[in-house]
Amino acid sequence: MAQADNRADVVVVGGGLAGISAAIELAEAGLRVTLLEARPWLGGATCSFARRGLTIDNGQHAFIRGCEAYLDLLAKLGVLGSVAIQDRLYLPVLGAASEQALPSQLALSSQLALRRSGLPSPLHLASALAGYRQLTVAERVKAAAAALALPLTPHGRGGRESFGAWLARHGQNENARRTFWDVLSVAALGLPSAEADLGLAGVAMRTVLGGRENADIGIPLVPLSRLHASPAVALLTHLGCRILLGVRAAGCQLSHRGGYEIAVAPAPPGGAAAPVSSAARPRLIRAAALVLAVPAWEAATLAPAELEADAAAWARLQPSPVVSLHVLYASKVTSLPFAAVVDSPVRWVIDKTGPAGLHTGQYLAASVPAADKFVDLPSSRLRAELLPELERLLPAAADAEVDDLFTTRERRAFIRQVPGSARLRARQPGIRGLALAGAWTDTGWPDSMEGAVRSGLGAAWKVLHDVAGDSADVAGAAHEIAEPAIATSGVATSGVATSGVATSGVATSGVATSRAVTSLAPAR
Ligand SMILES: Cc1cc2nc3c(=O)[nH]c(=O)nc-3n(C[C@H](O)[C@H](O)[C@H](O)COP(=O)(O)OP(=O)(O)OC[C@H]3O[C@@H](n4cnc5c(N)ncnc54)[C@H](O)[C@@H]3O)c2cc1C
Fold first, then answer.
1. Ligand 1 proximity of 22 Cβ (cutoff 6 Å)
2. Planar angle of CA 309, 311, 314, nearest 5 degrees
3. How would you label 165-199 residue by residue, b for 16+ Cβ within 10 Å and e otherwise?
4. 152: in domain
5. Residue 131, SS3?
6. Mutate which of 203, 411, 449 to test ligand 1's pocket (most atoms within 8 Å of Cβ)?
7. Is the minimum distance from the CB of 410 to ligand 1 under 6 angstroms?
8. pLDDT tens track for 175-214
9. Helix 137-149 vs helix 123-130: angle between axes, to the nearest 10 degrees?
């Protein structure tokens, strides 16, 4: 019987961006880290799958230059060259007004867009608004005034006012809400302003206004599995972290011997085969410290009994789904790398041709956030409702042949960031050696990649603070009971990760410090 090795100062449960960030930080600090992930790959909500020779992301993932923690993580992973960031914010906005007023796509992309100037903050965005022709001149002036007033809004946990209600109180009419504020609100919070939490909208606006480059948009140039998962496996392995894939934590409790006991079980069937060796799986892991970096609802079931009351609050957070329509056209239908959309269930269109590895034609992914009305529809209905939207927004799409079309559904893409949700987000528990991570926790940021990374760093720092100067305790409590491998009948198996993830190989580099980023030149 093979024995799992006896190393776990800290167990990190959950291998999304939060868990990856926490594990890196803790391993860099010299702790012996075991990272436990239920799926056969790392990356969590940012993942990819293979289809007909292409690598498909589970949904579009964009960010802004103000996402400093996320960019630092990419630098650590050595993949900054695998994203493109605009030199200056340029966000084309497609939708009803553009269709009526501007028949040609060239005119549309050059006029109906948010484009920042080189002026210092906040004038950089004032000039962007000044050129935004979805709004009348009077609406632009009022929008600028509201944008400047918003950062002064107090951000209290448990605030009940929606962003939309606040906008109405600050002179924003229906057109401004639909064609300007909802573009920002959907991008930042995954919800239109009428439903979105005011405090979080304020955080987003403060970030955008906080520096003239902050709102410049970045997108991946490679599949998410190559941007996050493979390099994370390589770096964590390099740092000596043990990665167990395809196993899930089934329960966690404080041990009477000090530290934590984490019960481990095989993950349910599903997903691609795990790229792991068939080493023995532990059934119980003991560790001095524990980071729970799983979604809110899993955290609520996994948390030690001492956190029962808090966990009941986390469980009340509501999920918000995202549906994506993926269309492979036989010919190119747009030169825009991405665009926001107004007056449509489709809120974002992104060109995934290059990242997916497509060499002819064009692959567009159309994203429907807050997709409660769509998430349970059959694919045929989604096609019937959403494909005509792409043809309306991008006239060349109507004449292009469709080579392939499919949908993806993420039922719990985000927490629903409505008023009142902020007070349900988790704060760090006052229990020694226990930390919570996840984009859903109370990072002060919207549920996002940036929030996930920040939460992971915060959790790692709490653990390091708790165990600082107490290395004897850490070593003493860190041991593990190994059990024979649990039969998995051909499903994803657990073991020590030795290679990459489901759809890609291992990134070759370890730590890289270069901050050189590919520039995403505005389409003009
Ligand atoms: C379609 C889509 C589009 C998005 N678009 C954007 C975007 O454009 N920009 C942006 O910033 N953000 C976007 N997001 C949100 C962003 O991806 C998430 O906020 C972030 O990745 C969450 O990271 P996390 O580590 O907190 O959680 P997750 O990624 O959910 O990771 C949690 C991990 O825990 C694992 N796990 C759960 N239970 C257990 C258990 N019992 N044992 C072991 N492991 C367990 C899960 O398998 C998962 O891998 C999008 C999300 C989706 C789904």
1. no
2. 120
3. ebbbeeebeeebbbbbbbbbbbbbbbbbbbbbbbb
4. yes
5. coil
6. 449
7. yes
8. 999 999 999 999 999 999 999 999 888 888 878 777 778 8
9. 160
DSSP of 399-411, one letter per residue? HSPEEEEEEEEEE
130: containing domain: 117-215
Q: How far apart (Å, rounded) are the C-alpha atoms in residues 501 and 513?
A: 23
Ligand 1 proximity of 389 Cβ (cutoff 6 Å) = no
Cα angle vertex 20, ends 18, 22, to 5°?
70
Give the model confidence (pLDDT) of 68-77 as tens digits.
Answer: 999 999 999 9
- Report the separation in Å between the CA atom of 274 and the middle of ligand 1, taken as the mean of its atom positions: 19
Please indicate, yes or no, whether residues 211 and 126 belong to a single structural domain of this protein.
Answer: yes
Could you tell me the distance, in angstroms and rounded to a whole number, from the CA of residue 174 to the centre of ligand 1? Answer: 33
CA of 17 to the centre of ligand 1 (A): 7
For strand 402-415 and strand 48-51, is the pairing parallel, antiparallel, or unpaired?
A: unpaired
Our answer on whether the CB atom of 182 is closer than 6 Å to any ligand 1 atom is no
Ligand 1 neighbour 445 (Cβ under 6 A): no
**Residue reference for tokens 């990760």:** 497
Radius of gyration of the chain (CA): 23
Put simply, whether the predicted model's pTM sits higher than 0.85 gets the answer yes
Whole-number Å distance, alpha carbon 477 to ligand 1 midpoint, is 30
Preceding amide of 220 cis, omega within 30: no
**Judgement on whether residues 175 and 249 belong to the same structural domain of the protein:** no
> Ligand 1 mean position to 16 CA, how many Å?
5
Domain membership flag for residue 92: no
Instruction: Please indicate, yes or no, if residue 324 is contained in any of the structural domains.
Output: no
Both structure tokens of 19: 């868990």
